[in-house]
Every structure is written in structure tokens, then in C-alpha cells.
Amino acid sequence: MYTTDVGTTWAGTHTFGARRLYLPGSLSEAAEIVGSLDRVRAVGTRHSFNDIADGETMISLVQLEPDVQLDEQARTVSVCSGTRYGVLASWLHDRGWALRNMGSLPHISIGGATATGTHGSGDTNGILSTAVAGVQLINAEGEVLDFDRSHPEFAGIVPSLGALGIITRLTVDIEPTYEVRQDVFRDLPWEAVIGELDTVMAAGYSVSIFTVWDEPTASRVLVKSRLDVDAEVPTELFGAPAMHHGDPELAALGANRTVQGGIPGPWLERLPHFRVDANPSNGDEIQSEYFVDRRHGAAAMDALRGLASEIAPHLIASEIRSTAADNLWLSMAYERPSLAIHFTWLNRPDALTNLLPRIEKVLAPFDARPHWGKTFVAQADLMKTLYPRLPDFQALRNRMDPTGKFSNDYLRRVIGS
């Protein structure tokens, strides 16, 4: 089955140029389709903000059944790559299990999040791909292959930008279910954000700082605490008071948010920022994000504040999060604990044409790595300096896809031919 009505990304920021989108009903059909094509790219729930999924032809596995397979002894779960995190999370919670971390949107597919290095937050939490214990994919010949952590190049196969094949299933680490509360602190002075960054980011299991950059305070700090891990929850944060459940300012943020204000609840209803049964984020938006070495996080934010007057007029909100270091070749947190500086922009692409190069120039001294699935201007020459294992990834890609079946303009632009 296929359609020629290929459409756009979820926020409408990119219109796909593919002539055809295949929607297979089974793994065997997907393998047959991939084997028969000269060029093909995978697309998931369309939550990227660039042309990473685009190509002459696309294939999507979002219509396949999740086919969840639980291995309690190994503490893993296997699931179809097109399954949304929210669907898997609900299935696991019903059986007493949980994921260690989730992104802000439970609406995204597990395969798409893995391929692009998508993440949540937390000093001790890696990007979502670090939980992946096994990958199944369809290679350029249409063969279904399985890889696990014993494979010597597994770290290059997990976040792979769709360049190695069509990911069909993922095996993910799990743990027993737990509860989380979200506490919101209002108006944290910038002096504390910059001067006490490590303490602020360590205030909970997962911490997010929200700002628009041109104000004397960060408007909100969202601290997510695990009830089975965190000994106590702060009542204030460097003078920033806690906002309580029922506060009109919290309600004004929107009914699509998960419950805040210190009310405990299941992990799957607190770790994401947005409810799975509601429209996520703003909707009509563009997103960018940059990862800097945690050691340089305060300096990078201080440098960005020098552009505050240019950033603020085009911004909906900016979110600052942390991630643990990992060994995944194309991870934005490869070999360095990182501070992730995120921008949710008004849908004004012409303004970003001039603004993003300015931001990337300011962040260049900190070796900022752009999020693969969001909007940025950096190209392959720079990426080669930011990712030490990029030559190894290119060699792996050339072996697994010698004819460039899974290549597209995006890959040629950001990692080279």
C-alpha cells in the first residue's frame, strides 16, 4: 500500500518532496518494498523540523501493530519502531514496568527518537537511545538483520539518522514502575542560573529551565522528582518560590501539560511535559537545539544572553536541560555530559535565516552540537570537527549501504557523501 499524498511534518515546517509514501502492513511486506527500491527513507510520526526523513520515496511503519514483547528476566521490552512512546509507556505501566526516561512529547515514535538522538533531561539520564539494547533493521538488500550490544559497532548503529537501513524493531531497557512529582519554581534570578547551574540542574531527577533570555529571571524551573530516589523536594530554589497545584499561572500554561504543582503520579504522566491525549507543544512552531559540554554550559548561556534582544522577538520559549555522557557515535552527548539549549520559535522561517547563523557563531567556541532533528545551519565540514567518530560512522554506512539507497539531501549536507 502507498500514497502520493505525502504531506508535511507535524508542525507544517517542512513539506515532503517524496513522490510516494509506502505504508506496509507487515514486516515481510516492508522488507520486500525496501529490497525493490533504489532510494528510500523512513519517516515516523513527523516530529522533526527539517528534511531528515525526506527523499525520492519514503516508508512508514506507524501503521504496524506495536507487537510488544516483554522479557522480565532481561528487563527489556521489544516493540515495533513506529510505535509512539506513549503507547509503549501505557502498556508497560499496566504490567508494573517503566522506562528510565522519556522526552517532553510522548507522541513521538520510538524509531524516530532513536535515530535522531532525542532526549529527556537529568544529570544521570542519557539520551533515549542509551536505553536501546537491540536494533532490528532492513538493510539495502531487503534483509532483516538484528544487532545487540555485543556487536562491536552497536554504538554506531543506534542513533544513525536512518542512514544504515529501515529500523523495524527496538529492544529497550526497562525497570519497575515508579512515581514522579513535578514542582515548578517561578522567577529564578539569572545570577543563580549562571552561578549555581550545577546545583539547579541537580535539584531533581529531571530539571528544565525555561526562559526568553531578555528578562532578569528564568520564568520557570521545572523539577521532576522520583519518589523512590529523591530524598526530599526543595521548597524554594535560590529564592524562587514554588508554584502550587491550582495556581492560576500554572493553569494558564495550557491544559495539554502533564500535572504540575507537586502532585505525585505515575512516571508516564509526569516525565513528559505534554499529555499523550492532547496536542503537544505550541503546534505552529519551529524548533532548534544545541548541546554544549556541561563544563561550558554557564558560559554558553551567558554568551547567548548577549543576543537576547535578537532572540526574544522570535521566541515562544527556550528550555535548558541536561544529559549524561554516552558512547554513541552520533549522540549529541557523545563522551561529554551536556547542557541542551532548546529554542521553540515562532513560525517565521525568514527571521531564522539570519538569526540561526548568529546563534551558531556565538556557540561555536563551545563546540555546540545541533540536534539532528531540529532546524540548524551547520554542515558537514563543521560536523566532522564535532563528532570524533563520524569517519567511523561513514565507513560503517559505506559498508552497509554502498549504493546510497538510504541517502538523501539532508545526509549529504550534514555528514557528507
UniProtKB/TrEMBL annotation:
The keyword Oxidoreductase applies. The keyword Transmembrane helix does not apply. Residues 14-177 form the FAD-binding PCMH-type domain. Keywords: Oxidoreductase. One of its GO terms (molecular function) is D-arabinono-1,4-lactone oxidase activity. GO terms for cellular component: membrane. This is Xylitol oxidase. It comes from Pseudarthrobacter equi. The lineage of its organism: Bacteria, Bacillati, Actinomycetota, Actinomycetes, Micrococcales.
